[in-house]
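Record 1 of the preview.
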Amino acid sequence: MPSSVSSLRYLLLDYAAAAVCGGGGALAALVTPRGWGMFPAMLLGMALGMAVFALVLNFAAPVLGGFTLMFPGMFAGMWGGMIGGMASAMGHSPLHAVLGGLLLGLLLQFVFHLYDRRLRGVGRCD
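->
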């Protein structure tokens, strides 16, 4: 199998793992009671998002490597959970929170991918 196909597969799996972390963290909207205040709902969502990230890390790290999953997955799970918890406290639909978490995970993976390319100097024309 060519190296470019293999690297594309790993790249897509990185994006999928970050999206699962963000969307899974936003599932905190299903668990957080609607009567809670914003701050406790955010803390519960953050804890649940980090738990989702830990599960994804345990299953995906042997394939993708822990380092490439650590930063985007941690931020996506934590921020997705915070968004889900706050959305539930405000009375919004859990579907919107999960979609927001998925998009957040994809955006964070893209930002960290660009940062990684910048650090490695990939694509430079010096």
